Amino acid sequence: MTQPARDRVTDSRAPGGALIVLATAQFLVVLTTSIVNVALPAIGAGLGLSATGLAWTVNAYVLAFGSLLLLGGRLGDVFGRRRMFLAGTAVFAAGSVAAAAATTAPLLIAARAVQGVGAALLAPAALGLVFALFPPGAGRARALGVWGAVTGAGGAAGVLLSGVLTDVFGWRAVFAAGVVVAVPIAVATRPLVPRDRPGGGRIDLVGAVTVTGGLIAVTLALSGAGQHGWTSPRTIGVLALGIGLLAAFVVAQRRVAQPLVRLGVLRTGAVGPANVLMVLLGAAWLALFFFLPLYQQRVLGYSPVRAGLTQLPLALAVTAASTATPRLTHRASRRLLLTVALTAVAGGLAWLARVPVHGGFLTAVAGPSVLIGLGLGTAFVLLTDLSADGVPAADAGLAGGLINTTRQIGGAIGLAVLSTLAASAGSAGPAAPPAVLAAGYRAALIGAAVLTAVTAVLSLVLHPQPTNRKETV
């Protein structure tokens, strides 16, 4: 029999305050993924970054974060999630300080990687603590409604804050914001987040090296495919290396006594289907927050602050849907709600893909943004809940690491593929005519819409229904 979810919580503090702290940390992690997008032109001008350097300003964080999440989740299970949460917050704050103070491109890119390492430690620990503090039922549904709201809104808020901070204070403020949020999180953790009992055990070093190296190689290959070509020896070689390392990881997990990832967890409840769907949804989600600000600034001529402020309808829609979803699950099946939500995202992306060169905010952006936000808010809550379905309490950190990994790696892969699609259909260069730029962004958004439509169909085929098992996370 598995441990009850609360067995590893060693004091009885009310979970409401803890949820505020943990959800704020999740908001910060997601925020950091998108907060640099609007500021990239200013960063490039300030440090003299090339197009490749700008791409690495984004990719360094994505690579470190996505590739280390599984290890971060396991460290929380073994040594204590609260402890890893605090350690990750400290590392993240240090990376933010270094990024804000960076005077050269290598220093900025290295600092972004440090931010990613910190996020990989704190994100799965935070979600694991939420699973432990809120057993399956109405309480967890409400908690995950908050979680879904901050996850979805974090991407939109990153674009909004990026524009405002860049216009008012300069691009360094974009990174300093991470410190401003991380320090209060660390201070509030001690009085508000209950201690949890470390699970003990060992760290699977072979598994950690192979999965981390494999994910880095695959993401690196796909991120660079647009520049080097999909059939170039570099792309094929690095991709083959990544696939080989991931295959070695799977073999190793079947042979060690205490694996980094207990592969059987993917066959538990709805965990496997939820993670498959999150890979695909993550691809469309990250692409949206990458291409929409570019369209607004390069095609519609918006200033950074205006581009940021126009993300408010999307953020509000995500928040509203995430809050309402737990109540909706009492009236309709989760599979039906998930399919409807994914269909709404696909429809909103297709609507947004009708990108006119001289489109206005109300006619070209506001309507589809609301539809996408409603779908994203609902889907994030449902998939996060399903990702822990039937998982033993001892594996809560693993479940949190898995769902964060699939969203992040899915986003990196989707962005690589859709960026190449945009470049082939138009041009990613800022000097290109608006009509050419719009054609490229339109192709990318159509690709994201098709990808999300496929995800909606798979939500029916994969049957991601909860098991309602007791004494689990």
UniProtKB/TrEMBL annotation:
<dbReference type="InterPro" id="IPR020846">
    <property type="entry name" value="MFS_dom"/>
</dbReference>
<dbReference type="InterPro" id="IPR011701">
    <property type="entry name" value="MFS"/>
</dbReference>
<feature type="domain" description="Major facilitator superfamily (MFS) profile">
    <location>
        <begin position="18"/>
        <end position="467"/>
    </location>
</feature>
<keyword id="KW-1003">Cell membrane</keyword>
<feature type="transmembrane region" description="Helical">
    <location>
        <begin position="307"/>
        <end position="324"/>
    </location>
</feature>
<feature type="transmembrane region" description="Helical">
    <location>
        <begin position="53"/>
        <end position="72"/>
    </location>
</feature>
<dbReference type="Pfam" id="PF07690">
    <property type="entry name" value="MFS_1"/>
</dbReference>
<feature type="transmembrane region" description="Helical">
    <location>
        <begin position="235"/>
        <end position="253"/>
    </location>
</feature>
<feature type="transmembrane region" description="Helical">
    <location>
        <begin position="274"/>
        <end position="295"/>
    </location>
</feature>
<keyword id="KW-0813">Transport</keyword>
<feature type="transmembrane region" description="Helical">
    <location>
        <begin position="115"/>
        <end position="134"/>
    </location>
</feature>
<feature type="transmembrane region" description="Helical">
    <location>
        <begin position="409"/>
        <end position="429"/>
    </location>
</feature>
<keyword id="KW-1133">Transmembrane helix</keyword>
<feature type="transmembrane region" description="Helical">
    <location>
        <begin position="20"/>
        <end position="47"/>
    </location>
</feature>
<feature type="transmembrane region" description="Helical">
    <location>
        <begin position="146"/>
        <end position="165"/>
    </location>
</feature>
<feature type="transmembrane region" description="Helical">
    <location>
        <begin position="205"/>
        <end position="223"/>
    </location>
</feature>
<feature type="transmembrane region" description="Helical">
    <location>
        <begin position="336"/>
        <end position="353"/>
    </location>
</feature>
<keyword id="KW-0812">Transmembrane</keyword>
<feature type="transmembrane region" description="Helical">
    <location>
        <begin position="171"/>
        <end position="193"/>
    </location>
</feature>
<protein>
    <submittedName>
        <fullName>MFS transporter</fullName>
    </submittedName>
</protein>
<feature type="transmembrane region" description="Helical">
    <location>
        <begin position="365"/>
        <end position="388"/>
    </location>
</feature>
<feature type="transmembrane region" description="Helical">
    <location>
        <begin position="84"/>
        <end position="109"/>
    </location>
</feature>
<keyword id="KW-0472">Membrane</keyword>
<dbReference type="InterPro" id="IPR036259">
    <property type="entry name" value="MFS_trans_sf"/>
</dbReference>
<feature type="transmembrane region" description="Helical">
    <location>
        <begin position="441"/>
        <end position="462"/>
    </location>
</feature>
